[in-house]
């Protein structure tokens, strides 16, 4: 441990801690602009300078390692003068009207720094060029007139996302933030994750979807979980007057460390589907408003006679976006209470189903996401991490500058192909052959395919390789392919990570809601779709159902087809538990209050159970362990 003194207070910190971090541990405020806790220290703004006994000059505390016996002062006349000068120079260029700006209201870090340092006017008359504002991007605006060249966005794009779209061009007062080689941001390689916007300390990058919708002092923050996929990113849901303002990544989150993908940050903000706010009953071929009692009575009248009829009772289908509590009630209601033989999920034939079956014989064989963050070789097979589970893809991309090789195995075009060291293109359904050749090469056998040989050589050098596999591997190959992949992973000492579809696909698999379904004499269909999207495949399967009950948040072709519609909450209106692809149990919290007449998915299912005389238990967590998990749950 390192022991030092800051402003007459002594503190002990681990080796490698910076002076800025040590000061923050003592709750000593040091002003800063270029520093952000999620990215590496940079030391460009020179606002966080401190005096250190024995040092000839003042030092940037964000890059200065704490030293044993160090004596630091953070607030002296010389430091105040230095910070005033730095801020004066920032105000002298570009469009920084911080002393007079009423728009930011405490959200602009530059204005906050000026006020904290007692600056109420411009010490130097500003002279600035009018840079063009880039409005080409669908989600955010780039205004170089507001940029202070802290490079937070540039560093976050590279260090956190691994995309390296942003850069600074020109010199001195002509410095500009650019995308790629100077193309408009909307035409660049930007993947629309919004990380750059969230870390920007000024108004240089602003969010189209939330700008001017609420200052920090006017909004509420709710810690929750993204339900866009099975990564389960930690988020902060920002609301005002019971409306979504924006979604932010939680930089203290254990799963994603603050980064989000387009799906997690912006899709919920742009969802324009029509909400359902009251139950509906079909009368004379037309859906009409009804009360919950009327809707539940209609369900009971139709479904009660089917209880215990097995194959001819009810086919029950649930979205894997539903919380574990709702999925547990769903399984108890239809699988145990009614005795239906088809109780499954919208993701029939879940990508986790085959791996779950294999886990019953070989035990847990998958690893945590942390293995991907620290890997020295990455292999992806049956998954395109540039399109699905993108945050896991960020982890793979951002370690590439460290010389970490990337091997992509995919018969289809893959978004990672251009950045891969080797892209293997087996014939569809022939992944097992490719794995077999890689296994042979790992055992020292000669292989005739040059690309496979190149991949094998790169992997051979790795001490901590990681293999990420997905639905494409399982869905289009023989069952033996997964066993071969496990054998190969063990041969090279690799960690296996399986991506698992939607937010609670893992839970659905543990509850065995993973069998294929087809109507085969069933007299009714119950679809707990929640706020999920309805697929044409699902509609085709249901079009001949004699009686359909839809538990949904939005109007859709499914609800139009239904005989009874139960309105339920969307993701931001309900609390519940989710288990992500690495087995991490997390809780989502409601950030919005649902309209009167709308119930949570669990409440709706419980009401149906009570109307049918079926008893359920609150045992969602115990039910997770009724079968061996593919990865340790905790």
* Assembly state (oligomeric): single chain
**What does the overall shape look like?**
globular
Major sheet, described briefly?
7 strands, mixed
Strands ordered across the widest β-sheet: 15-14-25-24-23-16-17
Which structural category fits the helices and strands?
alpha/beta
Distance between the termini: 31 Å
The name CATH uses for the topology of the largest domain is: Rossmann fold
- The value of Rg in angstroms is 28 Å
CATH top level class name of the largest domain: Alpha Beta
Strand content: 15-25%
What's the CATH architecture name of the largest domain?
3-Layer(aba) Sandwich
Number of helices: 20
Q: How many individual β-strands?
A: 27
Quick structural gist:
By secondary structure, the chain is of the alpha/beta class.
Explain this structure:
There is one protein chain. The chain has 634 residues and is α/β, with parallel strands linked by helices. It folds into 4 domains: 2-116, Roll (Ubiquitin-like (UB roll)); 133-270, Alpha-Beta Plaits (2-Layer Sandwich), CATH 3.30.70; 280-349 and 507-575 and 596-623, 3-Layer(aba) Sandwich (Rossmann fold); 353-498, Dimethylsulfoxide Reductase, domain 2, CATH 3.40.228. 27% of the residues lie in helices and 19% in strands. It has a 7-stranded mixed beta sheet. A hairpin with a 5-residue loop joins strand 6 (133-134) and strand 7. The model has no long low-confidence stretch (mean pLDDT 94).
Labels describing this entry:
alpha/beta, Ubiquitin-like (UB roll), Alpha-Beta Plaits, Rossmann fold, 4 domains, 20 helices, 27 strands, 19% strand
């Amino acid at each position: 441990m390192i022991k030092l003194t800051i402003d007459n207070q002594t503190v002990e910190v681990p080796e490698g801690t910076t002076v800025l971090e040590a000061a923050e541990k003592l709750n000593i405020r040091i002003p800063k602009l270029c520093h952000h806790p999620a990215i590496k220290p940079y030391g460009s703004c020179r606002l966080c300078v401190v005096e250190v006994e024995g040092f000839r000059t003042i030092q940037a505390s964000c890059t200065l390692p704490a030293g044993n016996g160090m004596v630091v002062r953070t607030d002296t006349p010389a430091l105040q003068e230095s910070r005033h000068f730095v801020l004066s120079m920032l105000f002298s260029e570009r469009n920084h009207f911080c002393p007079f700006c009423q728009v930011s209201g405490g959200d602009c870090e530059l204005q906050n720094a000026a006020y904290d340092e007692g600056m109420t006017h411009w010490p130097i008359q500003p002279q600035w060029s009018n840079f063009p504002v880039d409005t080409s991007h669908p989600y955010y605006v780039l205004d170089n007139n507001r940029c202070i060249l802290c490079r937070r966005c540039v560093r976050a794009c590279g260090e956190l996302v691994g995309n390296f779209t942003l850069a600074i061009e020109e010199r001195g007062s002509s410095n500009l933030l650019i995308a790629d080689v100077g193309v408009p941001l909307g035409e660049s390689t930007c993947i629309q994750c919004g990380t750059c916007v969230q870390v920007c300390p000024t108004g240089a990058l602003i969010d189209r979807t939330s700008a001017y919708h609420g200052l920090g002092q006017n909004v509420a923050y709710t810690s929750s979980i993204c339900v866009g996929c099975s990564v389960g990113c930690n988020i902060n849901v920002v609301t005002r007057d019971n409306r979504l303002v924006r979604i932010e990544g939680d930089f203290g989150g254990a799963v994603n460390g603050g980064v989000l993908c387009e799906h997690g940050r912006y899709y919920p903000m742009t969802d324009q589907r029509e909400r359902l706010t009251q139950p509906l009953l079909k009368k004379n071929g037309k859906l009409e408003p009804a009360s919950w009692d009327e809707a539940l009575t209609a369900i009971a009248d139709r479904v009660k006679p089917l209880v215990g009829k097995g194959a001819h009772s009810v086919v029950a289908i649930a979205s894997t976006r539903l919380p574990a509590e709702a999925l547990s009630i769903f399984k108890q209601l239809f699988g145990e209470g009614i005795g239906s033989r088809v109780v499954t999920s919208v993701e029939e034939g879940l990508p986790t189903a085959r791996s779950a079956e294999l886990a019953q014989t070989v035990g847990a064989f998958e690893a945590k996401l942390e293995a991907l963050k620290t890997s020295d070789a990455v292999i992806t097979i049956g998954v395109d991490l540039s399109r699905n589970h993108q945050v896991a893809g960020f982890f793979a991309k951002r370690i590439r500058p460290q010389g970490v090789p990337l091997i992509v195995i995919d018969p289809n075009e893959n978004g990672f192909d251009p950045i891969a060291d080797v892209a293997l293109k087996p014939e569809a359904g022939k992944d097992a052959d490719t794995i077999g050749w890689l296994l042979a090469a790992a055992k020292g056998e000669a292989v005739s395919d040059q690309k496979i040989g190149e991949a094998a050589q790169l992997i051979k050098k790795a001490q901590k390789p990681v293999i990420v596999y997905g639905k494409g591997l399982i869905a289009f190959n023989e069952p033996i392919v997964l066993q071969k992949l496990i054998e190969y992973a063990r041969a090279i000492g690799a960690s296996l990570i399986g991506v698992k579809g939607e937010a609670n696909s893992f839970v659905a698999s543990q509850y065995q809601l993973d069998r294929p379904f087809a109507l085969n004499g069933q007299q009714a269909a119950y679809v707990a779709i929640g706020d999920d999207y309805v697929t044409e495949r699902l509609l085709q399967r249901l079009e001949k159902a004699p009686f359909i009950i839809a538990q949904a948040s939005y109007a859709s072709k499914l609800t139009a087809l239904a005989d009874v519609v139960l309105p339920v909450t969307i993701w931001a209106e309900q609390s519940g538990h989710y288990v992500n692809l690495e087995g991490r149990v997390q809780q989502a919290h409601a950030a919005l209050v649902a309209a009167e007449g709308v119930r949570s998915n669990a409440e709706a299912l419980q009401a149906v159970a009570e109307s049918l005389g079926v008893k359920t238990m609150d045992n969602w967590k115990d039910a997770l362990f009724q079968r061996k998990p593919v990865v340790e749950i905790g």
